[in-house]
Specification:
Blueprint lengths: L1 H11 L3 H21 L9 H15 L3 H12 L5 H20 L10 E7 L3 E2 L2 E2 L1 H22 L12 H6 E5 L7 E9 L10 H17 L3 H7 L3 H14 L8 E8 L2 E7 L25 E12 L5 E7 L5 E7 L3 H5 L6 E9 L2 E9 L9
Antiparallel strand pairs: 1-5, 1-6, 2-3, 4-5, 6-7, 8-9, 8-11, 9-10, 11-12
């Protein structure tokens, strides 16, 4: 426990080398303690708790196989149900790290792997609705990141510049089993690179940094990195679309490589349900009191993006009532327009007599009849 405390202190201070050293030392001692009672199937919950603790430490320092063995040993005995559930959750984490592993390919700078895992994802196969949309949104997120890194004003309407698509080309590999993984390759032309800087690598690193901050809930740090409000809203909205739904897709992981080794980043928190009355704590844009929120179900029939500051949409509910809603910069083109003429669930906050869009999601099939 003392070594684990030292490891926690080292992590808080940013000393990763000390964190790993203390964690490995703690793992060694906890593993020895677990081995002393490994044959005592009657000694519960001590036996399973020691194995669980050792497995957690193994995960912390990246010893995935060792964690798997410790968990399996614990579950092979008679752990109390509460501890057994915790061990199964740890095993899910082990599987998650396995899905993030790069298998059979070699990643170069400017490349990264995206992997999906969940009940609707098999070994090398997934429902197209769970896969294709995430690939499309990730492509948009990559080019938005590139435009931001180039210092360009947020493009609310119209296609991205042809020159950018030609100078920063995106390639996607054939999906492979892992449960399902694809490699994205970002190649940049020479004119986008500065001496000593690979622009494609820079874009990938920036994207991974932002995803990691978002998943950890470090919103203020993310705002410090994405200071333009339109780019910030756009990033959060697209990341929400890519994030797990908690059922069909439980994890969305990314792996990149660097001279220091592989880096694993994930969107692990499920996206907030569209009809939640509280603001989503996982991926917030603004802090809004629950009583200020309105949930509107209906069909998105009008979208007006002529204004440079805010767009406007109208959602028609099942009773025929029209709900005009303002759309802040950063949300119209990539997040709202794909839902045009679809049944949607809108979360909006009141601003005087106006409604300001917080989020928009496609409604489930049976939601179309709801008012």
């Amino acid at each position: 426990m003392a070594l684990a405390d030292r490891a926690a202190d080292a992590r808080r201070s940013g000393d990763n080398a000390a964190f790993l050293r203390y964690t490995r030392e703690a793992l060694q001692k906890e593993s020895e303690a677990a081995s002393l009672v490994s044959a005592r199937l009657d000694l519960e919950p001590t036996r399973s708790v020691l194995h669980r603790s050792a497995a957690s430490l193994a995960l912390e320092c990246g010893e995935i196989r060792r964690a798997e063995q410790l968990i399996s040993s614990a579950l092979s005995g008679n752990p109390p149900e509460e501890v057994a559930e915790e061990l199964r959750d740890l095993l899910e984490d082990v599987h998650f790290h396995r899905h993030l592993e790069v298998r059979g390919v070699s990643l170069d700078p400017g490349e990264f792997q995206m992997s999906l895992q969940g009940s609707a994802v098999g070994f090398g196969i997934a429902r197209s609705v769970d896969f294709v949309g995430r690939v499309k949104d990730l492509e948009t997120l990559i080019y938005r990141t590139a435009e931001r890194r180039l210092g360009r004003e947020f493009r609310e309407a119209g296609r991205r510049r042809k020159a950018l698509s030609e100078e920063l080309e995106l390639y996607v590999s054939v999906p492979r089993a892992a449960s399902l993984a694809v490699t994205f390759r970002l190649g940049s032309a020479g004119q986008l690179n500065l001496p000593g800087i690979d622009f494609a690598r820079d874009v990938v690193d920036d994207l991974m940094d932002c995803i990691e901050l978002l998943d950890k809930g470090e919103v203020e740090e993310l705002k410090g990195k994405i200071q333009d409000e339109a780019y910030f809203r756009n990033f959060v909205g697209l990341a929400k679309n890519i994030a797990p739904d908690g059922e069909n897709v439980r994890t969305v992981g990314f792996t990149t490589t660097s001279p220091h080794g592989d880096r694993e980043v994930a969107l692990s928190k499920p996206r907030a349900k569209a009809d939640d009355t509280a603001p989503p704590p996982e991926y917030p844009v603004t802090k809004v009191a629950a009583q200020q929120l309105r949930i509107i179900r209906g069909k998105l029939l009008e979208a007006d993006a002529r204004s440079e500051q805010t767009g406007k949409i109208q959602v028609v509910s099942a009773d025929g009532k029209r709900h005009p809603i303002q759309v802040p910069r950063g949300m119209m083109s990539d997040i709202v327009k794909p839902s045009f003429e679809e049944q949607v669930i809108v979360r909006a906050r009141t601003k005087g007599k106006q409604l300001l869009l917080e989020s928009i999601d496609l409604a489930e099939d049976d939601d179309s009849a709801l008012q």
